Amino acid sequence: MKIVGVGCGPGLLTEVAIQVIKNASIIYGSDRAIELAHPHILPNCLVKTIDDFKSLHKLPNEAVVLSTGDPMLAGLGYLNGEVISGISSLQIAAARLRIPMARIVSIVAHGKGHKQGMHDTIKEIKQKKIVFLLADPKFNVQELFKKLRDLRLPLQIAVCENLGYLEERIEIGSVESPPKVSADLFSLLIGNF
Description:
Number of domains: 2
Number of strands: 10
Strand content: 25-35%
Helix content: 10-25%
């Protein structure tokens, strides 16, 4: 099995990922991942939308599994198989804001990880780290902003929405006046950058 990062937006596939996709006989992925890879999927390839993420370990060896962004950043890199890197939202955010990735700690707050993500973010901010928080629409951003204000540290907050897409938006504010989150596909950069 190959787990292929398709990038966080259109046109962000690597050449290696494109070749793997073109040579695939069967591809699995979310609707978004399939859409990002679609220009490179050949007509004779069987394409299936992932319905049950818990059963992915049962896929055949020849399967190519598409993962949005990079499989190793909140993706499907936990599956057994060869991982083909993708261009992640972390890479795009760091490039757009000109922050060296070596200065950034990434935290995932998806699904059931909201409470832990909030805890880890506060812990890293207290350590004076720059945090890249990958969240989902159900993550309580306002609660996080309140906890950050309570730290009384001079922090910047960047809301990064739809990275890699035409409707990409990055807005920077302070902890006292944070930018609004207006899209479902977003991440936050928090710290002194």
